[in-house]
User: What shape does this take?
Amino acid sequence: MYGWILVIGILTPLLGALLLPVIGKYNVKLRNRTAFALVAVSFVCAAAALFGVFGDKLFSIRFALPLGLSFGFRADALAVFMALTASFVSMIIVLYSYGYIHHYENQNEYYMMVVVFVGAMMGIVYSTNLIALYVFWEISSLCCWRLIGFYRQEITIRRANKTFLVTVLGALIMLVGFFGIYGQTGTFELMAMNGVHIPDWTVALILFGILSKSATFPLHSWLPDAGVAPSPVTSLLHAAVLVKIGVFAYARLFILTFDVSKSFQTIVPTIAAVSALYCAGVAFKENDIKRVLAYSTISQLSFILLGLSCGEKIGIVGGLLYILAHSTAKAGLFLCAGIVEHSLHTKDMRKMGGLAKQMPLTALAFAFCMFSIMGIPPFLGFFTKHMVIEGIIENGNVLLGALFILCAVMTVLYLVRLYIKVFFGPLNFPTETFTAEAFAKVKEGSKIMVVSVMILGIASLALGIFSYLPSQLASMIWG
Amino acid sequence: MNYLNYAAAVFLLIPIAAIAINNICPKPYMKKNFHTLTGTVAVFQIAAAAYALCAMNANGLTAYDFSILSNLKITGSALFRLTPVSLIFLLCIGMVAFVSVAVASKTVESMRISYVNLLMTMLIGMNGMVLVKDLFTLYVFLDVVGISSFVLISLFRSTKALEGSVKYLVISEFATIFILTALAFIFMQTGSLAYQDIGGVLEGADGSQKNLIYLSIALLIAGFSIKAGAVPFHSWLPDAHQSADTAVSILLSGIVIKIAGVYGLFMVVSLFPGVRAVQIALAAIGVASILTGALLALRQTHFKRIVAYSSVSQIGYILLGLSCGTTVGLIGAVAHVFSHAAFKTTLFSNAAALHEQVGTLDIDKMGGLQSRMPVTSLSSVVAFLSTAGIPPFAGFWSKLLIIIALWTSGSAVLGGVALIASIFTCAYLLRLQKKVFFGETPEHLKNVTEVKGGIKFVEIALTVITSATGILFPLVLIYLQSRGLI
Amino acid sequence: MEVIIYICLALLLSFCILAAMSQSLLKSAIFLAFASATLGVILFVLGAPWAAVIEVSACSGLVTVIFISAISLSRIKKEEVQKLYADKKQMKYLPYILIIAGIVIIVAALAGSVALPGTAVESTEDFREVFWNSRQADILGQIVSILIGGIAVYVLMRESKD
Assistant: This one.
């Protein structure tokens, strides 16, 4: 009966979002607060499910249907871990949106899509059925499409369409893989297929879908292109939540449920290595803040994929913890980039400099998040990267371990480049939008935006210091 | 039981009554209120179909025979039959007719009385087709539908409309010839064309007779595929849709190609079950239609042509469902008939709305209309998602059932191809969205307002139907399981 | 017996081709009348006298009368019709090719696998009983067809208001 808590956690954002445009017609403030409340409900339900995990009596519920389509929701350790991460970061992003979006059009649709997206994410992590997973997966693609095209310009619509087509194609190919499993086992339910060995071609197809959603080389190009979206959208979709769907599916399907051939423990890390190095290299050449951060995301996702696919417990736990670290920190980085963009109306790094004086708090939050991504103790990123690399080396693949250490070094370098160009250095500003006097008046972003990024920055630090708490939950997943 | 008889009589007698009322009432009054009359007929049909479904379910019937003009005592004179499948088709007919009427209330300015007459005769034709128990009678009503559509397409007698309708008529004649020849061959074998007599014809035949039967099955499939607009007989569809008035396009795409074409193929499959050649032929036509329709739609610039090619593509899915030969495939095909009726009529209603408010249907001249026409835009997005098979709308479930049927009956590769072909559907509909709704409003369109009245009402109603069917579909699955069908 | 049927089939085919290819509407209508008459003969020889009678009286007689009256009322000249399709002159022989191809295909498909149908067995029921009782649904269909015919004529042939 506690399973209904999960249903509430999923349906409240999904269905409640439909009310937001209606409320938004009459009272904007109420709509904003309702949006936050809806996401907060998901967070509370996930927290409640945490008790179930620690008490060893998982919340679950099942609805029987014919043709193997019976679906249900189950809050095991992995699901709760992902749900908590996703809903926490989403709450912060909704708060941030108050300050960022309030003078644009199409706000009703924006809030509706963001909340539906959170609901879809909850649906994905709790689902026990492949078709239900696919259903929520596609709902998230739909939200992505509308949100990326928020500004309604020609280029944003084109990019939104491209993202939609790439992710939907990946999902369709993944669905073919799911059907391959169905053909073999006659059911779509994950619980019934625990430990079943599935043929390599289905794994390859499902992997295609995962790679498309998590923007891994060669299906990665939609992610930097989607930087035309508003910053909270980019941070929600492309840092914190959307891209984590793919690696979550990897964990759910290939680690916890099915038995796949060992060859994938070499193939996937190799793909991840190529992706990581290539994108880290490109990040050096980019001059658009959000594109640098996007390529960084792709690179870090490869780390996560590496950790999950290396087959050693420490690697897997490291990968999962890195999901948490990266979500928090990268969301913070994108939101800070949003503050800079909001104030300066440009994303070009070459036109910026010395902003640390004008926006000290933003710079500080940016630094905290950045340290976590770079892997500097005592931030969470350090511990997780360490665990991931240890995992791959324990698996015997020293070459890949070395490549990833190289990638970590590159991460440090391009992020420092970004930071110096934007915040340090001589005072430099885009002259086409500012005169010197006008620029001198540029201050921090609005209060709510700064508070949001500070929360995320401090969270990155705190999670590192108290890292035994999330790692306890993470090791329960594999145990 | 008596009520069931009345419900059954509704399908055939109410349209006749409507024709009578239409022509007897004074002309000016009829011209103003034509949509009330036809709307009432459509509502009656929907209500009767729904009631009959419930009544048959409650009494556990799978078929109900009735007749119109004489009593049932004479054996063999029960000439019409209600089955749950035919009732779902009747429900779709009623729904599409209602939408067409709602759109016609805005777009049909002249010739209203003739429009009502023709719509009613078309209704009789379509209802008759799904109700009869005899192939020859099916053919007679098929011809009724054909002539009604031909005249409806050319109702306003513009040059383009006449060209489109003549093309439709000529190609449709081929269908008629094929079907009639096939009926002749079958009649030579069995001496009767009633469904119950045709059933065993393949078993009782020897060598050359068997060839004749196979030839007639091939001719039947060819003839009905022409009517359905499946590849390679699809060339009449875009022209006919584009040149007809939108209210007529709704009828054509929403229901006529399905009753005249798909239902015919459904009868072929149920009369000759298990014939491997039939399944292969339907599967081949299905896959070809899906791919050709989707690829051709990518290049079009006229809103209605894109939607017409989309119909060709979706008919392919229905045919794939029929080709499986299993109950799940059949259920998937019928479900897709319903969801296709819903989303296709939504798209055509949007076309009507755009034509009314913007004045053109050339998508290169439009853009960013979402902020100016929010209801139309929302309904077009829902229709797009349902067509592409994106959850949680109705189109997703019907496609899923068809793919499950394909996979479990051994055509895994076809299932994979059909699934991945959905990406083309996404592509051309995304292009449509980008060019028409999703973007910045150009200067010359800043004064466009939302459409009012009947069109807005059906757009909202159809969006609700598509979403509700999609979200509540698991209940349908549970019901079918309780009936032992899956 | 069979010889008559073959001759009549050949005649039927020729009349139909002439009706389709003729450049005068009036001549087409007359050839159509002859074609229907030939079909009536075939039906009679095959042993379906009622069908032959209805075929000759309705198609040959009634329909031809309606055609000829419509054509004489319409007043379009042969030259005007030809002008409309002047650009299609180079495809003048296409219909003949298609017709011959069609005949070849049909003959090839049917060769050897079917015998010419024999004469029909005289039915024990009066055709009126058959019509009303066991083919009742057809009656409805045919009434509606006639109705549509009338509506179609009205819609397509009315004088435009402008």
Remarks:
- DSSP finds 18 helices and two strands in chain B.
- Residues 293-486 of chain B form one domain.
